[in-house]
Amino acid sequence: MIFYINDLFGEPYKHATVVVQGDKYYGTKATVNVWKPIVQQSNEFSLSQLWIMAGSYPSDLNTIEAGWQDTTRGEWWLQFGNEVVGYWPTSLFSYLHDGASQIQWGGEVLDYASGGQHTTTQMGSGHFPEEGFGKASYIKNIQIVDGSNKLIAPIGVSTLAEQPNCYNVQIGKNSDWGNYIYYGGPGRNPNCETTELIFYSLQCIL
Questions:
Q1: 40 lies in which domain range?
Q2: Residue-wise over 145-160: b if at least 16 C-beta within 10 A, else e?
Q3: pLDDT, tens digit (0-9, with 9 covering 90-100), for 121-158
Q4: Is 108 in the active site?
């Protein structure tokens, strides 16, 4: 089961991510390409991040943005480059104290559909993944931490994009970047209309 983190009461979150699940995961490592996306209005946002998840939505989902887990003590640590920033103690979590069941990498946009139209808030660089290097946003060198506390390539990765005509994601692999993704999009465009938003809302409610 892939978790869709959406508020059905007026605050839909749109994703373009890749997902690995089906095992126990104790962390992740990746290099994130940072852009400055245009945000339509001040109460919306656009982000690029890593999700480490366990539990079930909406009742008891544990999620943090990035890090690795000390498999002896259970804490989740955050490292930026070579600097250890801090950790989340195991006491904060009902499920993540024993590893994660799912990890995601990619982008998310909060779309309030102002005026009944899909937002023009960009994800990533505002370009679709097929536009490639120099235009599309990417995350490269994607790895997970296994039960032996080793960094390995994720196995069985799938994509998640609720509205691919608005924001999308593509998976790749090569010798320079390892496992990587291109992701993002411009938001509202001739192929990303309110009809898609309405269909998605109904799909969520059902």
A1: 13-205
A2: bbeeeeeeebeebebe
A3: 999 999 999 999 999 999 999 999 999 999 999 999 99
A4: yes
Residue 8, in any domain of the structure:
no
What pTM value is reported for the model? 0.83
Interacting residues of 161 by C-beta distance below 8 A, sequence separation 6+: 15, 16, 17, 167, 168, 169
* Inside any domain, residue 78: yes
Residue 65 annotated as catalytic:
yes
* 158-161 vs 76-80, strand pairing mode: unpaired
In a domain, 6, yes or no: no
Catalytic residue (one of 11, 65, 83, 130): 65
Find the catalytic residue in 44, 108, 130, 193.
Answer: 108
